Amino acid sequence: MSTQHRKVVTAGVLTAAALLAGAGVASAAGPVTGTGTGSGAHGVPAATVIHFAHGATAASVKGTVGPGEDDRYVFDAKAGQTASFHLARSTSAQTWTLVGPTGPAVHDAHSSRQSDFTYRLPETGRYYVDIVSTRPSSYRLDLSIPASTKPAKPTKPAKPSTGTEPGNGGGVHGDLPVVAEATKIDFPAGRTSASVTAKVGPADRAAYTFEAKAGQRARIQLDGSSTGTFALIAPDGTPLHTTKSRNQSDVTVKLPTSGLYRIDVQDAVHTGTQQVTLTLPRR
What is the DSSP letter of 40? Predict the structure, then answer.
């Protein structure tokens, strides 16, 4: 997308940037200028930082996106802050994804709330917002992040959150503990397949990482409770498979880039053992 398609509008009375700087998190600097033309088949999209003006806790970005394009924005935040998103879009064919610093996707194309979504951020670090559409469309994304890290009071009783559900109208998500450490999947000598097991449930998740090269095909099999789900996150934070994807038992994905991939496993309903089998044939 060309630079003239994006601009930023800022408003607010408190400074998020000062809080982030004090927490050791890089804050945005300079206006949003737009850096990419969308990716689609062309590779990983360039990212544009969402800038919060001095003294502001809200910012807006707008642009156009079409088939095969992906507009990516990033922002830095502190664990416990509440982010509110409002997407004004010209067509329902347009959707967006939110991925945290270590995954998995907490909002994706399958989420029912594509216009308004509020989420209590579980980790300190960089968050990724990707906007896509199956046909030419325009959008305006408003993002508000109050400086306070105190939980917001929901306007209605909130259901227990998995951290990946769509918004519930006023409740705040992201209450589950975040997996801070991931276990690396090691392959036995001469083997291209390995299995790991973990106990997961509504209050527990498990995370694994593996190294791979661009073009390799990773097969991930999940065996355990029928309500178990997993997410696969690329090295750049792009979700390749989410907990909302229909197939959660046996998935093969062609990996787009070389680097460290992450698998997050969870079960929002039952507590039990899940087995993950990763097969990564050599190219």
Answer: G
Q: What is the pLDDT of residue 25?
A: 34
Whether 4 has a pLDDT exceeding 60, the answer reads no
Positions of CATH 2.60.120.380 in the chain: 45-144, 183-279
The 8-class DSSP code of residue 189 comes to T
Q: How many residues does the chain have?
A: 283
Q: Please, what sign has the CA dihedral across residues 122, 171, 140, 22?
A: negative
Separation CA 278–CA 270 (nearest Å): 23
What is d(CA 112, CA 117) in angstroms, rounded to the nearest whole number?
10
Could you say which of 3.50.50.60, 2.60.60.30, 2.60.120.380, 2.40.50.140 is the CATH number of the domain covering 183-279?
2.60.120.380
| Rounded distance between C-alpha atoms, residue 232 and residue 207, angstroms | 10
Question: pLDDT tens-digit profile of 181-211?
Answer: 678 998 999 999 999 999 988 877 788 989 9
pLDDT confidence of residue 104? 65
Per-residue pLDDT band for 105 (boundaries 50, 70, 90) equals confident
Q: How many CA atoms within 13 Å lie on the side-chain side of 26?
A: 9
Is 2.60.120.380 the CATH classification of the domain at 45-144? yes
**pLDDT for 171:** 34
Under DSSP, the state recorded for 173 is B
pLDDT at 174 over 70: no
**Degrees to nearest 5, angle at CA 256 with 215 and 239:** 140
Residue 228 to residue 224: CA distance in whole angstroms: 7
Predicted confidence at residue 148, as pLDDT, reads 65
210: which strand partners?
261
Q: What is the spatial distance between Cα 229 and Cα 108, in angstroms, rounded to a whole number? A: 15
